[in-house]
Structures are given as structure tokens and as C-alpha cells.
Amino acid sequence: MNICVLVTGGSGFIGTWVLRELLNCGAQTVVIDNQKMPERLERVLGDRSRDVAWSDASLFNCDELQEVIERHHVTHLIHLAALLTPACQQDPWLGCQVNVLGSTAVFEAARRSGRIHAVSYASSYAVYGPESGGESAALNRPPSFYGAFKQAVDLIAEQYWRHFGIASVAIRPHVVYGPEREFGLTAGPSLACRAAARGETYSIGYTGRVGYDYVADVARAFVQAALKCPPGATVADLPGEQATTAEFLRVIETLKPESVGTISISGPEIPANIPPHPKYITELFRDWQTTSLLDGVRQTIEFYREK
Q1: 18, HSE (Cβ side, Cα atoms, 13 Å)
Q2: Whose CA is closest to 44, among 74, 75, 19, 9?
Q3: Looking at the DSSP assignment, which residues form a beta bridge with residue 6?
Q4: For the chain, which terminus, N or C, has the lower number of CB atoms within 10 Å?
Q5: Which of 290, 238, 239, 291 is nearest to 120 (CA)?
């Protein structure tokens, strides 16, 4: 079977690495993204960035999305397009349109086309609150509009499976880090890696303990979930590696000792987002391997050394 994967948000941080993984698998790719970033694609994909097809279809137009699916003979969908937490908090209505209505349009276009084998899409640990067990687990709720919107899409995906047989996997990373992460509060550790590689100063703008997922692992999760999607509406939490912001910084300083004293930490403690009943990706792919924080930070620093 010839595989063609439509990637929404393919110019984004994770989307670029998803395209890299898809091209490594020999799949054809087509991207919908209203913010094209050809420089990023070229840095990550090199000459293979020319192999990516592009569409100007609107995320909010089911007919346009369906036309793209049919014209490019799309077989699988990876849906990443979304506004992040700060934008959703600042403008909840716009966040709802992009994250909820846009996601519904993607599922609806998949249904109408009748040719999509599976959908993998970006959920988030932001659907979880800070409570981890006991009676408090029943109160585990998203602490932000972004998390609420992501949870709504998870429920919508379940309905598309229940009523129309559209199989899907929701990939839930926590804090994704790695080369080319530039936006959002939790971009701080990735930007700190870049600063260390370039001998620059930088301040990470938050504290707290969270799970860190290396971007290449996250990209692999989306691709495997789309191409090897089981029946149903499945949720896959990524395990990540738990670390405080200070511990992340110590990894950078271990790998780049000359950066000691050039990177600082300040700002609020971000939510822990603890899943009360984790559904880890290892339940879906038994041979799943995770890049350690040490190796992920090393690869991030090396990427920026070479650019």
C-alpha cells in the first residue's frame, strides 16, 4: 500500500520532526499549516524538505480538507495544529475555534473521505490536574483552557470511533524539548540548550517538576500511532523523564561545563499534570524505547553546535 500522510501543523516544532520521521519511513507527506517556516524545515530535513507537498486548505473548512485528502490520495492523518496554553488563556474563544472546531473539522473530513485508515493527534498532559491518587483523583481536572480543549477533542475522537468507525490514537506528551523548540513557556529548557551551545546567557522562566519528552520520541509516537493504529479511540501517555527545572539545568551544565553560571531559573511553578490512571504508550507498543534526558539534551546541544 502506498502511504500518504496529511500532517496539520507540519511547520511547527513537533510537526517538522514528524515529517522527518515520515520521510525516514518512506511515506509521502502533505502539510496544512498557515504559518510556513521553510528555514526550520530545511534545518531539520535538509534537501528532503523539497519532498514535502503543501496545501493552503483551511483547518475550518471540511470541504477543503476533504479535497486535499482525495487529491493527494491521503491514507493517514496526523493532526498537530493547535494554539498553545498562553494563547488559549489570552483568547479562549479563538483557542476553542482552532483547537476544538479545527480538530472536529479534521475528523469530519476523514469521515467524509472514506479513505482514511487512522488518525493520530496531539492531546496533552494538560488534560490532567495536579491530583494523583485517593479521593483527590476524582477531582483531577485540566487547570487551563488549553487542557480543557484537549480533553474535549479526546471525547470527540471517541464519538467518531463509536459512530463512524474512525480509529485514532491521542498522543499525550508532557513537556516536549529538543532542537527548534522556540515558543511557549516550556520552551525554556530547549532555548537554554541552544544558549549553552552558542555560549550565550539565558533564563528559564519557570520552576517545578514535570516529565520531559525528547522531540524525536514524540515524532516517532505520532507516526507509529498513525501507521499502526489499533481499532478504537486510544489514548497513549508518553512516559517522559521526571525532572525539576534545576535538574534539567544540571544536565546541561554536565554536558557543557563552560555554561555554568550563564543560565538562570526564575518564574512560577508550573502544574505537575499528574495522570491518575496512566495509559502509557508501552501498552500500545511493547518495544517502546525512550531517549534519556541526558541523551536528549546532548543531541539538542550538538544540533545547535552544528547550525
Answers
A1: 31
A2: 19
A3: 30, 77
A4: N
A5: 238
CA 297, chain centre distance (Å): 18
CA separation, residue 123 to residues 30, 92, 103, 128, 155 (Å): 21, 17, 11, 11, 11
Q: Which residues contact 257 (CB under 8 A, 6 or more apart)?
A: none
How many residues does this entry show for the chain? Answer: 307
pTM for this model (two decimals): 0.93
pLDDT, one tens digit per residue, over 119-161 is 999 998 888 876 544 444 456 688 889 999 999 999 999 999 9
Grid-cell match 528555514, residue found: 39
Q: Which amino acid is at 245?
A: T
| Structure confidence by residue, pLDDT tens digits, 166-200 | 999 999 998 999 999 998 889 999 999 999 999 99
Residue 208 CA to residue 227 CA, distance in Å, equals 35
Hey, which residues does 5 pair with through a beta bridge? 29, 76
Cβ–Cβ under 8 Å, residues 244 and 208: yes
User: How does 177-216 read in b/e, with b if 16+ C-beta sit within 10 Å?
Assistant: bbbbbeeeebbbbbbbbbbbbeeeebebbbeeebbbbbbb
Residue 119 amino acid letter: V
In whole angstroms, what is the distance from residue 175 CA to residue 162 CA? 30
Contacts 24+ apart (CB under 8 A), 62-69: 62/105, 62/108, 62/109, 62/112, 65/32, 65/105, 65/106, 65/109, 66/109, 66/112, 66/113, 68/6, 68/30, 68/32, 69/6, 69/109, 69/110, 69/113, 69/115, 69/116
Four-residue CA torsion sign, 233, 52, 238, 100: negative
